[in-house]
Amino acid sequence: MNTAQASLTIGAVAKRVGVAIDTIRYYEREGLLPEPLRRASGYRSYDEGAVRQLRFIRRAKDLGFTLEEIRDLLALSADRHRGVKAVKQRAQQRLAVIEERIAELTRVRDGLAQMIESCPGHGSPEQCPILRALVADESAV
């Protein structure tokens, strides 16, 4: 890293990327972000490459990738031979996981909506279909 280019403080980088300072330090400890140069004062000094890499990490997290998956994506982004194909495969895998989660949440939503519809909203707690469903023995269902 060129010291003339490495002129951003950790606070400036955090503000530009929209992450907390502690998040940047965490990514450094986890090896997702290279250790920055240090100024004579001991303060970290970052360049535009760090800003780009942090944006990459943040956007990948927003898409649901885990830190381990992001580590793989970062490595693949530098692989000129198989990088794009492998990145596409990782994205397809992430999409499949998200679709499974959506299907499960849809089942939960539909079940909850059905319980709400069947509940009169008055009467004794013992007669409430929502409460009965929550305490029901799963083996009996």
From TrEMBL:
Keywords: DNA-binding, Transcription, Transcription regulation. SMART domains: HTH_MERR. PROSITE patterns: HTH_MERR_1, HTH_MERR_2. SUPFAM superfamilies: Putative DNA-binding domain (SSF46955). Gene3D superfamilies: 1.10.1660.10. InterPro entries: DNA-bd_dom_put_sf, MerR-type_HTH_dom, MerR_fam. It comes from the Bacteria. It holds the Pfam family MerR_1. Residues 7-76 form the HTH merR-type domain. GO terms for molecular function: DNA binding; DNA-binding transcription factor activity. PANTHER family: HEAVY METAL-DEPENDENT TRANSCRIPTIONAL REGULATOR HI_0293-RELATED (PTHR30204:SF94), REDOX-CYCLING DRUG-SENSING TRANSCRIPTIONAL ACTIVATOR SOXR (PTHR30204). This is MerR family transcriptional regulator. It comes from Dyella tabacisoli.
